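REVIEWER CHECKLIST
Item 1: Sequence provided? yes
Item 2: Single chain? yes
Item 3: Sequence as submitted:
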Amino acid sequence: MDHPTDQILYEAKDGIATITLNRPEAANAQSMDLLDALDAAWTRAADDTDVRVIVLRANGKHFSAGHDLKGDSHTPDKITLEHIYGIECHRYLGYSLRWRNVPKPSIAAVQGKCIAAGLMLCWPCDLIVASENAEFSDPVVRMGISGVEYHGHTWELGPRKAKEILFTGRALTADEAERAGMVNKVVPLDELDGSAQELAEQIAQMPAFGLRQAKRAVNQTLDVQGFQSALQSAFDIHQTGHGNAISVDGYPILTRLDDMKKHIKQT
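Item 4: Structure as written out by the authors:
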């Protein structure tokens, strides 16, 4: 495996590119550098004509604890809504949409916690295989914000279940996510990588152009129904949460951030 940063590992073999989140000591929390490296790995797989399927997985106990809440070297001394909007439009919503639209089938293999921005890594993938201990949550409403920037909740879960997890902040189990249609398959933890690999190998046997067009047909159907327009609208709603937070509490919202961290630990 090789990559300019060890936060993301990359391997391509037999038509399958495997991208691995590699910050297990931080529960694969997403720094800006990690996201940039992850986007570079997606681009590398997309541009490699020998790659037919992309698998996204994670080292360690948890798939991803979401955004790195300890701060980042990219954070300026003074935070403005303009700064937040620019960063999130590019690295959050922008990257997730770009990964979603890569014209090759992709599979996310999810174990442990998948919190908030963790959803923005697995939801853009075409298929999700989850371990039995996987949990999916978006507690961002606790920060006074409408949910994560890639607001796929309604599309992934339906409106009532989407409202439930947003209103309560509770986690969905892997079985619940499968019943809702968000997850394709639930397997024992020790079978997760093998199941994702087996599925990737099966897909890789199909004609590359046929796979590309099948993915385009499904994604285009969602887009005709308003998928990308809805996500952009929800992203702008998300920004009003940041604007309110700046005007009321300043930024970062330390008390609300601490409350969300406590909630995550409790769950």
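Item 5: Key structural point noted by reviewer: The first helix runs from residue 32 to 47.
Item 6: Recommendation: ____
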